[in-house]
Structure to design on (651 residues):
């Protein structure tokens, strides 16, 4: 079932995109129901899909047993699909039943091929998130 | 009893030989790569299943096989042998490509041109291996890394080689993540890989409208034989950018290209019958295909380094690898290798520009080779 | 035949060099042209802007004309100019005849003058579409 623009418009990641850009992005997203205990992605496997949380609680387990919980609507899981190291750096498991939107890397790159301006905006957002992640992980290391 | 025996001797089980088994395994491998590994599934799944269908043994003369006139598969194959499907695929490609990145930084087009050198080196290699000129031309175009272009030219020059050439072209396109990165790392230093590209300017709608007209005239006047590919390509792009025929553009980049891709992949796969495909020539084609891709990647990267000798504002030579027109696979690889060298270096948009120019370059090369070898 | 001999025999070197040069030259020219496209686009956009500004000006112009007042006419002067002409036409006359006579004499503001004289009661209707001059 196609994803509605209204579903993604309020999400933080999609702020600043025009209606046409939201429509294009929405047409590439696939909704998926997730059951409690289901593993969305595994650490060390090639990152081919990223997910946007719509509902539910997810635990991401990193190396050395570190983990954190994601339950905010609009959170993105699986950024390594488009940024280094291009393999999942953690394992994401559903703590409750929930719903996510997924987009494969093929579809993501096709989207950018179709609309360079949208691609530029998305890459700028990704750059910002990547630098925030880096800052967060270096703080955690300290 | 005779009837039963006649029936049994016409079954695939009876007619099976080891070559069919090999091809069935090849088809299964393609399906595995497409479904389990998600390597270019849009191409490998139809091709893989086509290989399975084409290699089910049958009694020749029943009008079943793809090479038998009046068979259903033969009618579907018509679009391959006449070059219709590649033209339709190019229509859809044009309707789905945004040339803003290329228009914002036109010098990246030269990297797309440089990557086509793989075609001409492969031409020499194929001639040296004893292939006839038309066969060599068809094999050489594999270096353009464009499946529809390869099929189009082969259908014109050496139709008996469509099967192995198409399989080689699409296989190597799916293997881009394995072929390109080592070559990129070998030919560039860490410092070069870390070169940041300037931000791209915004491109106006008028520029995007003028481009397909300018591209069509300049490219097709130079190589009129590329009209069947570049004509629909720029037409599709104009439909996309005009904004007044959104319905047509949407149909071109979805239903139409998908339909053509299904039939193209399926019939090309079905054409790889064991007796046609498993020949020494096919081995030569596969070997030359790997050479073509490698040289194309290398020549793009090396040209980027040469450009830096003359340019004040350096370009990242990794972008040369994106001149190989496997869209968007090679752009993605360049982006990944760039990020691995420097996690803040996002080359994707620039790589997309080189990719788009590679598509145009490979179509022009097909036109040039066709006019040389006709 | 194999190797370099095969390449030479089939004209391979010439095809490879010529083909490479043609595609490089072609795409170089295309890149030079598209490097100038933004100037062509700016020129075309400027032309479109000027034309749309002109259209806007034409649309607003009639409103301004409606606002401007017509030139004022001196009643005595109008009387002095038109009375002799009215006398030529007889005791009663049609306004169109007076208008044509005044125009052929190249008098200024004929229509305005006749209207002013009608409004001030100098030219009054006599019935049957004819008018008379009242002193």
């Amino acid at each position: 079932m196609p994803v509605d623009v209204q579903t993604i418009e309020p999400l933080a990641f999609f702020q600043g995109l025009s209606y046409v850009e939201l429509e294009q992005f929405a047409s590439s997203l696939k909704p998926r129901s997730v059951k409690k205990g289901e593993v969305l992605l595994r650490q060390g496997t090639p990152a081919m899909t990223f997910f946007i949380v719509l509902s539910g609680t997810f635990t991401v387990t990193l190396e050395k047993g570190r983990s954190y919980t994601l339950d905010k609507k609009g959170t993105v899981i699986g950024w390594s699909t488009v940024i280094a190291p291009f393999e999942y750096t953690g394992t994401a498991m559903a703590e409750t039943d929930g719903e996510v939107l997924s987009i494969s890397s093929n579809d993501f790159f096709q989207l950018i091929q179709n609309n360079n301006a949208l691609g530029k905006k998305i890459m700028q957002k990704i750059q910002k998130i990547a630098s925030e992640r880096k800052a967060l992980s270096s703080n955690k290391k300290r | 009893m005779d009837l039963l025996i006649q029936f049994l001797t016409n079954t695939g089980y009876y007619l099976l030989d080891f070559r069919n088994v090999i091809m069935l395994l090849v088809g299964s491998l393609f399906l595995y790569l497409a479904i389990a590994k998600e390597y270019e599934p849009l191409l490998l799944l139809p091709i893989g299943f086509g290989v399975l269908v084409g290699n089910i043994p049958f009694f020749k003369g029943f009008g079943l096989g793809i090479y038998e006139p009046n068979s259903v598969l033969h009618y579907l194959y018509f679009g391959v042998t006449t070059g219709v499907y590649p033209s339709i695929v190019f229509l859809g490609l044009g309707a789905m490509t945004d040339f803003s990145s290329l228009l914002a930084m036109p010098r990246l087009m030269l990297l797309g041109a440089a990557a086509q050198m793989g075609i001409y080196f492969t031409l020499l290699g194929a001639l040296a291996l004893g292939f006839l000129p038309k066969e060599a031309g068809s094999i050489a175009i594999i270096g353009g890394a464009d499946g529809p272009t390869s099929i189009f030219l082969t259908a014109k020059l050496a139709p008996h080689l469509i099967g192995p050439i198409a399989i080689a072209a699409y296989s190597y396109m799916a293997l881009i993540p394995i072929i390109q990165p080592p070559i990129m790392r070998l030919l560039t230093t860490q410092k070069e890989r870390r070169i940041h590209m300037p931000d791209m300017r915004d491109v106006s709608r008028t520029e995007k409208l003028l481009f397909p007209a300018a591209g069509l005239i300049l490219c097709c006047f130079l190589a009129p034989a590329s009209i069947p590919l570049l004509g629909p390509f720029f037409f599709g792009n104009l439909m996309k950018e005009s904004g007044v025929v959104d319905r047509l553009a949407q149909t071109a980049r979805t239903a139409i290209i998908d339909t053509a891709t299904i039939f193209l992949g399926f019939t090309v796969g079905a054409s790889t019958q064991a007796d046609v495909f498993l020949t020494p020539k096919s081995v030569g084609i596969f070997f030359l295909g790997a050479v073509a891709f490698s040289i194309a990647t290398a020549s793009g990267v090396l040209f980027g380094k040469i450009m830096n000798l003359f340019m004040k504002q350096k370009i990242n030579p990794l972008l040369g690898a994106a001149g190989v027109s496997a869209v968007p696979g090679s752009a993605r690889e360049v982006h990944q290798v760039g990020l691995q060298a420097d996690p803040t270096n996002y080359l994707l948009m620039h790589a997309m520009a080189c990719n788009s120019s590679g598509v145009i370059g490979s179509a022009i090369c097909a036109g040039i080779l066709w006019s040389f070898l006709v | 035949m194999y190797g370099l001999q095969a390449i030479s025999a089939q004209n391979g070197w010439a095809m490879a060099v010529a083909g490479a040069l043609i595609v490089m030259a072609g795409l170089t020219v295309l890149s030079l042209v598209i490097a100038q496209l933004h100037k062509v686009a700016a020129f075309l956009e400027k032309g479109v802007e000027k034309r749309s500004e002109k259209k806007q000006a034409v649309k607003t112009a009639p409103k301004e004309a409606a606002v401007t007042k017509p030139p004022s006419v001196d009643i005595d002067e109008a009387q002095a100019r038109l009375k002799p002409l009215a006398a030529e036409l007889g005791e009663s006359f049609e306004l169109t005849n007076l208008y044509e006579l005044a125009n052929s004499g190249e008098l200024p503001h004929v229509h305005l003058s006749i209207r002013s004289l009608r409004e001030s009661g100098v030219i009054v209707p006599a019935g049957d579409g004819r008018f008379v001059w009242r002193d």
Observations:
- Residues 60-373 of chain B form one domain.
- The mean pLDDT of chain B is 92.
- The first helix of chain B runs from residue 2 to 9.
